[in-house]
């Protein structure tokens, strides 16, 4: 401290940046900002703009007003199922997979036998991409040649992936298989950092194991809870690869991301219409992001 | 790390982002014609390589082939043609070619067509854009039909049905005999389109079918409802759970003699048969529904070559296309890939399998040749509306009115967009 004050004292007025400093700052800040604008904000704004046009990717861009949105809500049969499936995904991962991951983490943290083995087995699917999980799901669940129907036997095989009432649940289970391991490893790390003194104190105060967990351990895990929440929301909204691997996201597996792809990336090139879908997905995501940021900032102030 | 190295690193990083596009802009010198290929499967890939090799040997020119995964090629065709396409590329006949011709992305090759020999008028029509100019060199095609095993038909004493009533009666009989009458899979979304096409062409005729797919007829008309109604009547004889089964798996049930028949294209079922069983494979044309239309139309998708508008080596491209239009070029190809048949009447059919010979007969006797549902209509309509609609129909075959109204509403939207 005295050192800086001494230097400051020698130089009157606010600190001036040399020309070189300015260039360095400009480059170091400028490149990320430019990349951010070019790679993130540019495409985002372009999507919003294009969503008001009927563009097929080749000819002239024609203004269409709100027609795409109107079509989306009224005449596109896949839209509402896709919204429902995205929300179901969120609920399933958030209410089942994440708590289950926590449960496994607690059990392993308590030091059940072979905990290392369980830990690595449960974590293994996280290493696989969801597309690979999709392929594995097909090997197991295919109606005629899948392993599960071969084991169950019977004259009327169940159409796990072809029945539109059933396949979304099967795919959700497969997605859970991966998500649970992911959540588990995060909580395991969090549990390791819980001060054992806290638990001892709770035990001395006569708290039951349950009380200790819910009143003492879980609150200290708050930072991990936040991370798990964010990851769950992101995973649910960007869910794509597993259903695309199973049946291109059709016949009961529609998701917003799939509809965007179907309309923009494929041979179809209904870029205006697809952009409108992308904007809907963006708005849904923004809803969660804004809620999260508001909560975080509030928490920051309280602390 | 010092600031200087950090900066240097940042500069290199930025360069790495920009470099590939710069390099791409520089490539493409005059060293031979470039060929964009979607033939990523082993058998056709090798067969095409043989054909190009034969051309190189004959002309002393080189062909540089850029092979892209079949599905990716299809999905990126828009951007491909607007970016830096190859001089010549593989694509399909019919509406799917006309669409790009209309958008001005293809080169007119009418001058080459004037000297072509051995192509029927039907072929020429399928190679012609809406402006009356030719854009495609057809190469091979593969008819769709009802496939079955000779031995099953012989052992059970089945006769080949000519009419729809006989077809239905045969299906009923097969079910009684413990067979699945129709092996059926539509997980990929397109295989069931073949059945729709045939039902529509037999019941309403080729002209209605094509007008419907061009957006000129309405989908909630009585004619289309009748098609779905006929189909619904056949569904109890179809293998259940089609939306969860690939066509490969369906073809295997036919190979295993668990199923009696299946509606597929010439290259499809045979791939799932063992070499020994392949001779047991046979087909008959889709039966007649309305005597006014008989069995006139045959669904036979044509694959061929197109020249992109942005072709750099135009002379080279035309020379290559001229060669590919000769019967010899097709012979070389079919020697390595006997799952298709040549389009040129001068092609050597002596080495054909009996099945190929029968396919030639079927196609040459056709009064009209359709391509395929997703080749006879707009790509956006086929891939975002019809695939889903047919899958929905297979799940809930009873709500035909709701289904066709849904299709019609979306059709109006898509066809009015441009």
TrEMBL record, chain A:
Pfam families documented for this protein: BPD_transp_1
Coiled-coil portions: none
Segments crossing the lipid bilayer: 21-41, 87-108, 120-141, 168-189, 271-294
GO biological process, one term: transmembrane transport
A Gene Ontology cellular-component term: plasma membrane
UniProt keywords, alphabetically: Cell membrane, Membrane, Transmembrane, Transmembrane helix, Transport
InterPro entries xref list: ABC_transporter_permease, MetI-like, MetI-like_sf
Predominant cellular place of this UniProt entry's protein: membrane
Record carries keyword Transport: yes
Annotated ranges, domain ABC transmembrane type-1: 83-294
Compartments it resides in: Cell membrane
Organism domain of life: Bacteria
Record membrane topology: Multi-pass membrane protein
Record carries keyword Plastid: no
Family: Belongs to the binding-protein-dependent transport system permease family.
PANTHER family xrefs: ABC TRANSPORTER PERMEASE PROTEIN (PTHR30193:SF42)
The protein's name: Sugar ABC transporter permease
Native species: Streptomyces nigrescens
Automatic annotation (TrEMBL), chain B:
Pfam families for the chain: SBP_bac_1
Annotated signal sequence range: 1-24
Classification via PROSITE patterns: PROKAR_LIPOPROTEIN (PS51257), TAT (PS51318)
Matches recorded under SUPFAM superfamilies: Periplasmic binding protein-like II
Keywords: Signal, Transport
InterPro entries: Bact_solute-bd_prot1, SBP, TAT_signal
Family stated for the protein in its record: Belongs to the bacterial solute-binding protein 1 family.
PANTHER family: ARABINOSE-BINDING PROTEIN-RELATED, OSMOPROTECTIVE COMPOUNDS-BINDING PROTEIN GGTB
Protein name per its UniProtKB record: ABC transporter substrate-binding protein
Taxon lineage: Bacteria, Bacillati, Actinomycetota, Actinomycetes, Kitasatosporales
């Amino acid at each position: 401290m005295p050192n800086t004050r001494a230097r400051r004292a020698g130089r009157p007025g606010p600190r001036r940046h040399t020309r070189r400093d300015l260039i360095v700052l400009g480059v170091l800040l400028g490149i990320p900002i430019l990349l951010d604008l070019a790679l993130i904000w540019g495409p985002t704004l372009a999507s919003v703009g294009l969503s008001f046009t009927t563009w097929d990717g080749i000819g002239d861009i024609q203004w269409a007003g709100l027609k795409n949105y109107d079509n989306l809500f009224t005449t596109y049969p896949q839209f509402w199922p896709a919204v429902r499936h995205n929300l179901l995904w969120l609920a399933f991962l958030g209410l089942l997979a994440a708590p289950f991951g926590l449960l496994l983490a607690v059990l392993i943290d308590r030091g059940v036998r072979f905990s290392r083995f369980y830990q690595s087995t449960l974590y293994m699917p996280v290493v696989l991409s969801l597309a690979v999980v999709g392929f594995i799901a097909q090997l197991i669940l295919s109606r005629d040649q899948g392993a599960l129907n071969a084991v169950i036997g019977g004259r009327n095989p169940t159409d796990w992936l072809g029945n539109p009432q059933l396949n979304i649940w099967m795919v959700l289970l497969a997605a859970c298989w991966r998500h649970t391991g992911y959540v588990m490893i995060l909580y395991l790390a969090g549990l390791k950092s819980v001060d054992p003194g806290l638990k001892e104190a709770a035990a001395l105060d006569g708290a039951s194991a349950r009380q200790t967990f819910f009143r003492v351990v879980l609150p200290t895990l708050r930072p991990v809870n936040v991370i798990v929440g964010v990851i769950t929301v992101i995973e649910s909204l960007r869910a794509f690869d597993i259903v695309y691997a199973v049946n291109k996201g059709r016949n009961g597996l529609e998701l917003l991301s799939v509809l965007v792809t179907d309309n923009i990336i494929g041979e179809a090139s209904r870029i205006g219409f697809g952009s409108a879908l992308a904007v809907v997905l963006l708005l849904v995501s923004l809803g969660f992001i804004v809620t999260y940021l508001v909560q975080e900032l509030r928490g920051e102030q309280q602390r | 790390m010092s600031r200087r190295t950090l900066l240097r690193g940042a500069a290199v990083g930025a360069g790495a982002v920009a470099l590939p596009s710069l390099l791409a802009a520089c490539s493409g010198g005059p060293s031979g014609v470039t060929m964009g290929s979607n033939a990523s499967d082993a058998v056709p890939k090798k067969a095409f390589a043989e054909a190009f090799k034969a051309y190189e040997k004959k002309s002393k020119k080189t062909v540089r082939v850029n092979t892209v995964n079949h599905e990716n090629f299809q999905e990126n065709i828009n951007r491909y043609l607007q970016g830096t396409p190859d001089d010549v590329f593989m694509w399909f006949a019919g509406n799917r070619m006309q669409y790009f011709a209309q958008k001005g992305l293809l080169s007119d090759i009418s001058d080459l067509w004037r000297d072509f020999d051995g192509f029927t008028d039907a072929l020429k029509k399928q190679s012609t854009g809406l402006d009356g100019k030719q854009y495609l060199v057809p190469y091979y095609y593969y008819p769709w039909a009802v496939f079955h095993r000779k031995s099953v038909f012989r052992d059970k004493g089945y006769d080949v049905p000519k009419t729809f009533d006989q077809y239905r009666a045969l299906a009923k009989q097969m079910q009684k005999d413990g067979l699945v009458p129709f092996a059926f899979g539509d997980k990929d979304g397109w295989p069931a389109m073949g059945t729709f096409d045939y039902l529509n062409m037999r019941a309403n005729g080729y002209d209605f079918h094509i007008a419907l797919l061009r957006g000129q007829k309405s989908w909630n008309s009585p004619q289309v409802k009748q098609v779905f109604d006929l189909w619904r009547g056949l569904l109890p004889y179809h293998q259940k759970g089609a939306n969860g089964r690939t066509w490969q798996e369906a073809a295997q049930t036919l190979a295993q003699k668990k199923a009696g028949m299946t509606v597929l294209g010439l290259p499809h079922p045979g791939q799932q048969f063992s070499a020994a069983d392949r001779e047991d494979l046979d087909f008959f044309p889709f039966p007649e529904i309305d005597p006014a239309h008989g069995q006139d139309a045959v669904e036979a998708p044509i694959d061929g070559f197109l020249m992109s508008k942005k072709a750099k080596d135009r002379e080279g491209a035309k020379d290559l296309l001229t060669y590919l239009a000769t019967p010899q070029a097709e012979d070389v190809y079919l020697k390595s890939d006997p799952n298709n048949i040549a389009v040129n009447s001068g092609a050597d059919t002596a080495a054909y399998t009996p099945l190929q010979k029968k396919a030639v007969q079927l196609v040459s006797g056709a009064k009209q040749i359709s391509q395929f549902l997703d080749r006879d209509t707009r790509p956006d309509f086929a891939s975002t509306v019809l695939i889903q609609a047919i899958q929905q129909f297979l799940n809930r075959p009873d709500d035909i009115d709701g289904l066709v109204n849904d299709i019609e509403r979306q059709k109006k939207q898509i066809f009015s967009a441009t």
